[in-house]
Every structure is written in C-alpha cells, then in structure tokens.
C-alpha cells in the first residue's frame, strides 16, 4: 500500500494478462504518469517479454520494481519514483 501522510492507499492494478509487449508497458507508463510519487501500481502480465521490459522501464525512469510469478501470470509491484 502506498502511504500518503498517515493514510495508506490501496495499490492500483493493471490487468495486462493476454496482452503482448509493448502493450503492458504502455498501459503501465500511462497509469504511472497520473499517480503520485510513492504510490504503488501492480501489473499482471503473461507475456514473457514483460519480465525484461517492465523492470527495464522502471530502472530507466526511477521506479522500484519487484516481481513474483503466480501460476501463469507475472505480478509486478511498482513504486513510483
């Protein structure tokens, strides 16, 4: 959860399962633009290229990114820098 002051906000979620890159990255980029620094975005993806593209985008743009593989999907947890 993102913390703003003493309040916690639930993470926003993008369900990009079934989409091929670069669509998951483009959807993530657009959503991150509208979010405050420190906010958390979860992205669900199934395209194996997302394991490379999403962390690379995050490193290049100052965001923290971690991932967990769950069943057939990859769950990326991104904290906006």
Q: How would you describe what is shown here?
A:
The protein is an alpha+beta fold. It has one domain (2-79): TusA-like domain (Translation Initiation Factor IF3, 2-Layer Sandwich), CATH 3.30.110.40. 28% of the residues lie in helices and 38% in strands. It has two helices and six strands; from the N terminus they run E-E-E-H-E-H-E-E. It has helices spanning 23-33, 50-61; strands spanning 2-4, 7-9, 12-16, 40-45, 64-70, 73-79. The strands form two sheets. A four-stranded mixed β-sheet has the order 3-4-6-5, with helices on one face. Strands 1-2 form a two-stranded antiparallel ribbon. It is globular. Residues 1-6 have low confidence and may be disordered. Residues 14-38 form the UPF0033 domain. Pfam families: TusA. This is Sulfurtransferase TusA family protein. It comes from Devosia litorisediminis. Belongs to the sulfur carrier protein TusA family.
List keywords for this structure.
81 residues; alpha+beta; Translation Initiation Factor IF3; 4-stranded mixed beta sheet; two-stranded antiparallel ribbon
Shape: globular
**Unreliable sequence segments:** 1-6
Order of helices and strands: EEEHEHEE
Rg: 12 Å
Q: The CATH topology, please?
A: Translation Initiation Factor IF3
Strand content: 35-45%
Structural class: alpha+beta
Percent in helix: 25-40%
Average pLDDT confidence is: 90
What is the CATH C level class, in words?
A: Alpha Beta
Report the CATH architecture.
2-Layer Sandwich
How many discrete domains?
1
The CATH homologous superfamily is named TusA-like domain
InterPro entries: TusA-like, TusA-like_sf
Family: Belongs to the sulfur carrier protein TusA family.
Domain UPF0033: 14-38
Protein name: Sulfurtransferase TusA family protein
